[in-house]
Batch of 2 targets.
Target 1
Amino acid sequence: MTAIPLKKDPYSIIITGVGGQGNVLASRLLGSMLADKGFYVTIGETFGASQRGGSVMSHLRVSKEGVASPQIPRGRADVIVSLEPVEAFRVLATYGNPDAVLLTNTHPIYPVGVIRGELSYPPLDELQDVISRLLPASYFIDATEQALLLGNAILANIVMLGALGRLNIVSFDRENFHAAIGRRVAADKVAVNLQAFDVGYGMVQV
Amino acid sequence: MSYLIDEGKNVQHLLMGNEAIVRGALEAGINVAAGYPGTPSSEIIESFSQVAKERNLYVEWSTNEKVAVEVAAAASFAGLRSMCVMKQNGVNVASDFLLHLASSGTRGGMLLVSCDDPGALSSVNEGESRLFAQLLEIPLLEPGDFQEAKDIIKWAYELSEEIRNIVMIRSVTRMSHASGNVTYGPLPSDTAARAKFNYHGPLLDPENGPVISMILAAPELQHGPQQEKMKKAAAIFETCPFNTYTGPEAPELLIITSSACSLYSREAVKILGLGKRVGILKLATTWPLPPVFLKKHLAATERILIVEEVAPTLEDHVKVLAAESVQEIGPKLFYGKKSGHLPSVGELNPDLVLAVLSRLCAVPYEAAAGVFATEAKALMEKLAPPRGMIFCPGCPHRASYWSIHNALQLDGRGGFVCGDIGCYVMGILPAGFSTVKTLHAMGSGSGIASGFGKLRQFGMDQPIVSVCGDSTFFHAAMPALANAIHHRSPFTMVILDNRGTAMTGFQPHPGSPINVLGETVPALDIEKICRAMGAKVEASDPFDLEKTREKLGHLLEYAEGAKVLILKQACALSPEKRGRKKYEVTVDETLCRGEDCGCNRLCTRIFGCPGLAWDGEKKVSHIDDIICAGCGVCVDICPAGAILKKEVA
């Protein structure tokens, strides 16, 4: 494929989710695919407390000019990829703008307050309505369900990358992904990751 | 082969700041690296260990940061290049030896890498290490991006060998845990190194004499030469290739910045279109400052904004220089933390720099389209429940705190827990049933408990418990336990042994059977050590709630001296457990009495495991199969026996 020109420089992507969802791997994979395409990529990550149920967010900056700030300024995300629906909402309130593209997994991970029965988790259709009204370009897929069919919920991050690939807004493809995943996971795990990528690719219509 | 030792010519990789530091050290021909795990520094030693064999390195996770510096110093004394690595709090631990080392000087190039955590994103404080460079009288370098994080290391080794002293490299979370493109330089073709410690020369011979820091009543013999080294460093810094200026010749505002803040500053200037009005002086050499270079840039402007995180360290140094040079450069207006333009608490970001620049340059700026931002924020507050910190599903700490909390409640004398550093800091939160009531530094929970135990003399009769992890035990809690045993201080030390330095990613410690290089090593037995020290010792599996509470109750009642309870159960995320369920856990909805139980939803409301949730519609508890780790502990907390477990074949 030919490289898709950046609509802005730096072009800003957020990958968000909850600790343990494989957010960091997803951002590194996307980052290395874009670096392979000749872009400068800067990734900022917050994962110190990530394994303890907190929100985890990676900021990716893509540029032809050079290194960018590892933190995206408020209101300036161009793409938001979320592994959890409420997290998508949290991020768009701080970093979103009406032109941003949003892609989210619809499988919820309940915050501790919800588990305890003290807080309520919004119904998915309400969340979907509100998000679609704020951001016309939003896509909702149950990546976790598909990942479970492939044998492991953790593959939801790769399903999401596949779906992002289909949206055709950032320059990467399957071949690109194959090279990047090959550098990050053991050889016997490459096939299932490619499968997850393909499943995600087929989950969105553009 | 690891991408860290790719030998392709001018090859480029996307590296974390920490990995860039490692690649830089490999290109500089490092021989020895030692450290103690701590976010955001841990990947440095881990990355070295991955290439240790190919590059002929000695790498270790030391018992604590002070020992790490000592191990790295030995390599330097024997003529090798070494690095010691830690997070900011670790520099406090190492500071005693560092002060002496800075006085004795070094031989082979030696670097201290401190990774600070402005904003305390994964620390108990945001204390900063830059001030140590001033205290220790050693040079401080701060890389401003990922390429520089690699390139500056070789330059720093040359500096260290030139001035014969340790050089400090300071990174921050947004540098260490951020990633960017890095173009590689060549690796040395010869990895053979020969270590020899020469000590036959005269006492103060820096090349061949003994290496000492002990000049009684004659400080000028060592302290004098040490200060000369700093003057030499300042002179070298005048032409440091990593100090850069971008902007007009005479800017109406000069930003002086370093590290990740230089990236925020650059972005803010670009967004506001101020490139022709505002200059950015990005400093890599932040102590000592190169005076001639600084004065040249100060002279070119009237107004100066210092952009840095946490303490106004750079601001103070620049102001002193400006005051000393006022006749040369004229009076200046300074903006920064002291003027209230930037906060001295928390990390910075592009928005904070945008706000101050917008104000100082009178360029209006609004982050996002007004209506969208207000509406999205209002909806978020309404619809997105906050995500509190919680122990992982299957975490042994939840079970341990459950038993500690219950034992103290049953005891009824107002007992409490002195906390320590690890995931179990969450004992201060409802996640750990709010059992922890003091929390400070590594090992200090047991030291404080030792002190509390001696307050019986003043009528204090509350039972005292301390908690401490297995890595923390070796790091700093052993002296506290020795103190308590020796002074007959009555408290119960609970060692939460989850088989590794879990919070930072399962790094081995002296109790581990395998070291960072994967070699089999003697594992020190915590139980035997405590017994040999003279404590009354019990051990239990924290997943066995009944036995644990019984043992704890017994120890609390036992009035004499220091007692130790070792709770052994591997972390739920440890490689041996991850992804494997011991039990298939289910809730029998016919047995769950829901809101009529009388337990007031003990299982979900209090126990708080992410795998066991309250179903608000059905009004019963249920297991989330994707999240449940299958530890089976919740089976024993349900008074109705509605939670069932079946061993997974």
Target 2
Amino acid sequence: MTNTTQVATADDAAADVTPSPVTGEPVRRFSRAWWGALALRNAMFIVVVLVICYFSYRSLRFSSLDNLTTILIAAAPFALIALGQTIVILTGGIDLSVGSVIAMSAMSAALVAKNNPGQVWMTVLTALVVGLAAGAINGFFVSVVNVPPFIATLGMLTAGSGVAYAIGGGAPINGLPAEFGNIANKTIGGLQIPVIVMIIGIIALAVVMRRTAYGMRVYAVGGNRAAAEIAGVNARRILFSVYAISGVLAGLSGVMLASRVISGPPNLGQGYELDAIAAVVIGGASLMGGRGSVWGTALGLILIQTLNNGLDILLVPSYFQDVIKGVLIVFAVAVDVWTSRRRQ
Amino acid sequence: MAGVLECEDLTMGFGGIPVLKGVTLTLEHGTVTALAGENGAGKSTLMKIASGQYRADSGTVRVDGTELRAGSTAEAHRSGVAIVPQELASIPDLTVYENLFVGKEVRRFGLLRRSEMIRQARQALNVFDVDIPVTARMASLPVGLQQIVEIVKASRTGAKVLLLDEPSSAISEREVEGLYGVVNRLREQGVAMVYTTHKMEEIRALADRVVVLRDGNLVLDEPIGKASDTDIVTAMIGRELGTLFPDRGTPGTEPVLSVSGLHVVGASAPVDLTVHAGEILGLAGLVGAGRTELIEALFGVRHSTAGTVAIRGRDVPRARPIEAIRSGMALVPEDRKGSGAVLGMSVLDNATLPQLRQFSVSGWLRGRSRSTKIEKAMKSVRLRSRNLGQSVGTLSGGNQQKVVLARWLTGDVKVLLLDEPTRGVDVGARSEIYRIITDLAASGVAVVMASSDMPEILGLAHRALVMRAGAVVGELGTDDLQRDDVQARIFSLAAGLPDPGHAAARGSAAPASAAHDAPAPVRPAPVRPAPDRSAPATAGAATSRPSEDDQ
């Protein structure tokens, strides 16, 4: 209870340099307990490695370069919305609207592409602006009006889906110019553009969260909003910004998805928000805010995408895949709760 | 000396109810002003206006002669007014140095310079002689050290005025030492401080001047040497304190709770104790002495490895709270908001919760009988609520505690376990809670009360056990508790000092200051009272327990 007078040990002090022991007691480096603590800390990483090893063992095709490319391409649109979701969840919020934002931005982009063939940059810009607008509306209601994030973004999820259908008059937008497909299908240096965008996005956000004042303030607002405000952090601005960023990333994700199929289906992105939230949670973030990392989300994402792909290759029926994913989500959080209790 | 912070004729109301009715207060460099008053007197509101969090309805706040634009924390910050709020304002998952620098990060080319922040954080903490690992997670520090980090954070960027809102309410006596050291050091640096507290010893130990608010009015403003304890307390509650502790009844001889060889996990020795019908047994000791753990083990929410707990000769299975409740045990935990009451639920439902069996028939709640009985119980504790449907979270701290206590009045309770029953409760509600406790004892309930509040143990308990490291290290009977040297004795026992007689010799005139010396600080956190304050501190301590007058 409150009677913990135990002062943090030197090992705690070194927490962000070397892995500190789970029990908080001093542990000799490379001793058994030290390895145990290290394994517990990196449990998800180990799980990912084991899963990859298993699939590689079961199927030669899994470990081929072709398949790696397939996984990366499939992962890219998810990665972008999972990144946005990460910073939203770090503030203690949630963004349920990303699926509909994908649909809206994809439909807008498709519409622009159809009417302005050859102007690819304009379609991308349109998608980003639509995403930003949706995110800004979310951010406005959450940070200024103080609507709970769950409600504000649930509204956007519902309304946004309607808007997406309205853009296409209730039908998909087809017959798009071929160059629209370049956005997702063109390769630069052997990598598809979405893959490059994903890699840059992960690295950039990781640096922002770990190395800039903005990142620290996001953690601070999520950890204790009142405290952050007293320290001079403009919590409203931070909250607004995370939803706006999440919206922009969803817009980018939307245009890439539309480009891949060279059309604008209004149901694009449906249900994606849950996979994004799953990746963040599997990556060790707390839905209460203040805890989580871009690296963790990347791991969660790799795990989900590897499972999707590997289970497909092994011809596991999709309903079984869903069961496995569901169990995995709860299991990941259970392990996290258990280890953090051990740590205390 | 010119005033660094001048509040002039501040008024403010919430929803038409005036909270401040024209308060004028001037603070000078290098002084500590104790701001006392019951809960709801307007202390926090005043502090929040001064620090720019609230906008006053009328009146002005000036810092160094410049008027502070109301309602802007950032601007208050810039002009040098910082606040350390009552609820800890730390961010648990960030490290100590990140907490110190959040909002004022050290950057180069837009990127954080972590090593530089770590270096500066060490430097800032070293000035105060506190040994805190700056890269540790904030949540891993004891509350007292977190509090010190908060104060260092607020003062680090050259604050001229520091507002401390009940800084000691959640920390142990030992940690208070470190806090005093930090406050004294800041005073030497010329910072003007306001220190809100309920505790007379702290006013005496730290303040140069005492200001009392009551019902939104400033009713007392004196240099510390000129105000007696009685003056201060009378000003706070608007009446004499004589009634704080009710008469203790005479305990019966029949043992109700018998504990033998109870080995609580983490304790250094097993515990034996007996509590008789109608007896109030106090558990004294420093924070971390194992009082809470013992109480939790008795109730069964904490594991014990050996020993027996029996109520009226019948064994209660260990580590089974349900069995404890069925055997007639009741627990009022330390953490009211965390585990005492369900804040979102109504008074009625909260009071029903531990007695669901009594108030339900095969799962269906018995509406009439439940509300009649609970209404009676709440009336008997003079609960101030609109009605039984009001949610507990909207009640004041004192009234919340009354609900938590009174819900045991409706059932058949044989043993009442209390852990810090009046933490965060103002003086007025306190006396009513004391009355409830003595009434329950008078009806034959055996009461075990853990408390860090020394006057509470002395004024209420028939007998007190002093604990250290989970073991009982001393027992004081009713006669012992009435003696002048009792505070010094308790502290010597609690701190493990070999010679209580020595402390008593010094301490009979100044028990409070002896108490401050007794628990040897774990880390260098020397108390440096300015020489001119030691005299009033001694005089004040002798009268710091006016409650004894009516015993």
